[in-house]
Amino acid sequence: MELEFQQLDRRYEALRTRNPPRERRLLASLSACGQQVPIVVVRGSEAEHFVVVDGFKRVRALARLGLDTVLGTCWELSEPEALIVDRLLCGSERASALEQGWLLRDLSDRFALRADELARRFDRSVSWVSRRLGLVRDLPQLVQDGVREGRVVPHAAMKYLLPLARANAADCLALLAGLRGQRPSSRAMGRLYVSYMAGDTQTRERVVSDPLLFLRVDEERQRKPTDPCEQLLADLRGLVALAGRVRRRLEQWQGEPLGTDAHAQAGVLLSRVRREVERLSRVWPEEERDAGRAHAAGDPALAGRGARDAHDCAGAGDLARSGAHCAGGGHVSGPGAAPALSR
User: Fold this and answer.
1) Is residue 18 part of a domain?
2) Which of 100, 149, 173, 227 has minimal CB crowding within 10 Å?
3) Domain boundary residue, one of 209, 225, 241
4) Per-residue pLDDT of the chain (343 residues; tens, 9 = 90+)
């Protein structure tokens, strides 16, 4: 069926997030090929009005193209049933936990569906419903608006901004304002979150006041150094950090038994790690002794050649006592020794 835009009720548009790059691709496709997939609607309370259940991106794109009508298919279902069926059938575009929370909250508030009823309808547990409703309740509305408008990655909002908001809601909002509409990746948001949680008061202020500058400085600091000594130190720091992360993961393991194959692989890998650490412990003292000789002799080129010959001399007194061999010359003796040294 062909529907005019004034017939459409888009009250559930806020339950979906926007993805600007994807919408640009859809706009180009609709401009070149026209609408291929109809939107999904149900009949509204008023005559000749239809509530949009799916297809909000297509509606926005067609409106931008200046069209007046849109192709749609009408489901003979009630609004809550249509919303639930659409979500269950949505396999190509999996909803984030935040979008699930928005839908559950709307179904609960608008249609008075209880948590156990929602769990039964979605074939989930009551705790699953409660967790997603708690996510929507605890995350600041400004952050949710940023996710809805495509300015915040949903995964970053759930994994980093939510715990930050629970720890300090004011700093979470200040961080969001400091992004100035930019859309950092989940990895970048993770760096901000880790730096904030591990930093002192001054570091936290830098993170929330200008997160974009903090990311640029941190990226510059993380670049691999070109100096061999700095490379060695950077590798050692990375090794320490990785070992600590593995240790913490093992400590936090809740005693769940690993599968036979995974347990065997982990044992082999840990044995290899032990061997490499033992090799490092054997190599490092040799490096230390070699470096000590080089600095003691004053010339790195002489490092590793062993102790000096017993006949090597350090001053004119040695030359006067015997015909000794210097490090840089031949046999010296007699009265010409001192003048030769003075030259």
Assistant:
1) yes
2) 227
3) 225
4) 999 999 999 999 999 888 888 899 999 999 999 999 999 999 988 778 999 999 999 999 999 999 989 999 999 999 999 999 998 887 545 788 899 999 999 999 999 999 999 999 999 999 999 999 999 999 999 999 999 988 898 889 999 999 999 999 999 999 999 998 888 999 999 999 999 999 999 999 999 999 999 999 888 777 766 677 877 887 888 888 888 888 887 777 666 666 777 778 888 888 998 988 888 888 876 545 554 444 444 444 444 444 444 444 444 444 344 443 433 444 444 444 444 444 3
- Whether 56 and 117 share a structural domain: no
Output the six-digit token pair for 249: 């993961």
Specify the CATH number for the domain of residue 55: 3.90.1530.10
- The verdict on 84 and 99 lying in the same domain is no
Answer whether 0.70 is exceeded by the pTM: no
Comparing C-alpha atoms, which of 160, 143, 163 is closest to residue 151?
143
- Tell me which residue of 292, 287, 314 sits closest to 302, measured CA to CA: 292
Q: Which of 139, 133, 97, 99 is nearest to 115 (CA)?
A: 133
**Structural domains of the chain, count:** 3
Range of the domain at 27: 1-90
